[in-house]
Task: structure prediction
Amino acid sequence: MQGADTTRLDRRTLLKITGAAGTTGLAAMGGCLSDPGSDDETNEITITLSQFPDTIDPLDHITGDYFDVYDHIYEPLFDFEPGEGIFSRVVEDWEAQGDGSTELSLRDGVVFHNGDDLTAEDVAWTINRTVDPEMGVPSPIGTYGLGSIEGASAIDDTTVSVEYSAAPGLAEFEFGNYARAIDKEWAIENHDAENDAISGSDPEDFNGTGPYEVVDFTSGEEIVLERFDDYWGDEPPFERVTFNADGESSGRVNSLETGETDLTINILPEDVDTVRSADGVEIRQVTSFRNIFCPMKNTVEPFDSQEFRQAMNYAVDNQEIVDTILSGFGEPRGQPVAPGINGFNDDIEPYEQDIGMAESLVEESGYGGVEIELTAPQGRYLNDADVGETVADQIDQLENVSCESNIVDFGVVSDANQAGVDPDGFEIPFYMIGWGTITGDTDYGVQGFFTIPDNPNRTFDDEELSDAILESQQIEDPDERRQQLEEVNQMAHEKAPFVFLHTQESIYGVREDIEWEPREDETVYIWGMET
Result:
């Protein structure tokens, strides 16, 4: 890891140390944080994101920055370690029943921030509210994260049955990453949550079981959390946490330099040297699970032609984009998922720029002379606007295609991505977006985009590709399923539903004395830090 030379302590090691040392170890660890003679700042941390949540409903998004905030309030039911799998957290034990369901056993003593006990009914209701678009708010987490989950029911006070349509291993990837718990009675009584999104602007409008509770909230600007005294698990390392956001990398870096923030995400490559030359802060980076690509909705011209879609891939020089615009902080990619993901196909090379091939394929498609527009976001991914403009310029170099870029706020692109493939239901057929396959399994990187049944948000309409993914979801043997997913990635490469671009690096600016290691899934967990 470049720019990171401090000794770090991951969560597992931290738990081993605290577990081995028992109460004494916890007291010693917390001593530097709670010593009356120490600097109060060691009890606090400020984290600056690139996007502040525009909803307080923990199910009304599927955005990394939002998870960074809300997972500390509405904690995951499981711990997930990229490349390793899921581990006990709120759910102590789980067992597949062999009938399309898995039973989850909840630990005792878990309470919500308002003092209500967590029950199996709360978990089942939350899962059902996530996957049922008619219940509460249509949740992208349900569409993309819990795609195979059909519902859940409470068996008793501490046992939940989760029902699914896929193999148990895939279902485990999904609920192991995306299952959370909302207090059912509180949500219905205070927010009519079976019919509407949870909303409000008071700290009391948040109520999870996480290690932190909300003490101050300024909509659109800042949310302040403090340790939850009745939390069932280990005491988190900082007493007080502030999340804010700045859409500009330079602004986030300035906050880091001046000490206004302690950790910030999405540092742009051109700002890396600024952080490295500043006192007391440093760059930490990791190759993420996030691919950047440009979907092409194949229900409208000219993107209904496979030759045309392949031509767009041959028109773009991904290596040049990585080398120049990303300063090397990325890797060209030719399939939907990144290395390290289950089902990644090592045999697939990125498309290499071949202008002659691209122009020839355009002529074969019958769309020579067409004019298209690429819509790209600004401020969401590494130099995203510059990447989008360069992709459009390179396509525009073809003699038989004219292409312009349209740079917009990320929300425009996000809406385009969820608008489906009905030509009457969308206005933007060609756009740039990123997707982090945070479950570590190819299914999460493809099913939301490509499967057809019960998926109105898909971006591509192809029965062969959809069937291949659905077939993989039913395979229980891990090796056989991995091979099928590799074939899915090969099929996606050839059908070219995207202009495949690159896997990006996640670049963070961090106070040097914070012991923390960035994760491939881009999640920032405070319980994984120490000073």
Summary: Residues 1-39 have pLDDT under 50 and may be disordered.
